[in-house]
Design a protein that fits this description.
The chain is α+β, with helices and mostly antiparallel strands. It folds into 2 domains: 40-45 and 171-266, YaeB-like fold (2-Layer Sandwich); 52-169, Sandwich (Immunoglobulin-like), CATH 2.60.40.10. The protein contains 4 helices and 13 strands. It has helices at 2-43, 172-175, 186-197, 206-222; strands spanning 52-54, 58-64, 77-87, 91-98, 104-112, 117-125, 128-135, 143-154, 157-169, 229-231, 238-243, 246-253, 256-266. The termini are far apart.
Amino acid sequence: MRRGILRLTGMIAIILVLVGVFCTRTLANVEDDLRAQQVTNITHNYGNEILGSSDSSSEIRGIQTNKGEEKILGNTLPNYVILNWNATEDSIIFDITNLGIDLVDLVYGTIDTGNMKKSFQFSNVGIGKNKYTVSGVPLLTCEEKIKIVWYAKDGGETFGSATSTGSRQIPQSLLNLWGPGSFGSRTKCLDYHFGQHGREVFASNICEYVRMADNVRREIINQKLKPVRPVSGATPNVYRFEYGIYYLHAVCKNYVLSGDLISFGEKNSSP
């Protein structure tokens, strides 16, 4: 009887230990998830700053002869469309001016950032000024040269095409947070590390990636976390820190974060 009680007591003790280990790991995972959510939430309040624009106005002029029963200037309708655009970190904002005397049925084309392409089309473009936003066009390197090939269609016929060029860049305030590392330039270093780690930390564009890294830096300072180890490389005094699911490599003074960010990613990945 006593042996049975002792065995039962031992089994209960083992179960309690296992439950304790499981709960500890679960709480740690929950804490990491909460920290990750905090970093992500803070970075979602940005995105509307204008980071670039078209170099100049692009225009299409044409004569449409097949639009309904209207007869103007010998059964023709003059069409005149002007396109300009601005760029944010994740969208292109079009300003399209229709100087004709009727709606333009369709303006369509392709945005090419050098890193991705995206098609667009706008129906029934009214007389005067019109504004359209095409989302899902993220800034994926520190600078992008953008080319937009576009067409105008009216009365069932495409009456012209044109090309608009321009660029957009990461804000200098964000770029200045990043160090040159072994690449010799801030832009090259940031382009590389965002390309390596942007997706794993769920940063939708390069600006959000830097803001996430900077927020992790702030949390490390606020919580007075100590570095995990030094990081060898071209930049002296770089240390590795870990916060939640993330790691951060940054320049330190007396083991305290005080300088450029060098690398940021998920802590189980390779820098």
